[in-house]
Amino acid sequence: xxxxxxxxxxxxxxxxxxxxxxxxxxxxxxxxxxxxxxxxxxxxxxxxxxxxxxxxxxxxxxxxxxxxxxxxxxxxxxxxxxxxxxxxxxxxxxxxxxxxxxxxxxxxxxxxxxxxxxxxxxx
Length: 123
Description:
Radius of gyration: 15 Å
Number of strands: 9
Distance between the termini: 31 Å
């Protein structure tokens, strides 16, 4: 199933890495999730979530990364095997990122997934 999120975020470039910071509201649960996405061009995607959920997911091509994922309903162990990573800087007014990966939950294969992130300047 596809999930689309459109939100306002803060963007900055630091030490050659792109950072996107935004808050996410979850329906039916009080509070917010603080999200920080770090893009290291052509190398990795790093996603940290804090507050309602806590996780630190890293996506690197041909590597397996395992992380605890804390939710209000209990803790999970997520494993990601990144199959592909694509990054495009489009005229410095937008960035597009695509990641293909396999997702394991508590050691069992759950799904093959795709993430597409499109960051556009607010003009």
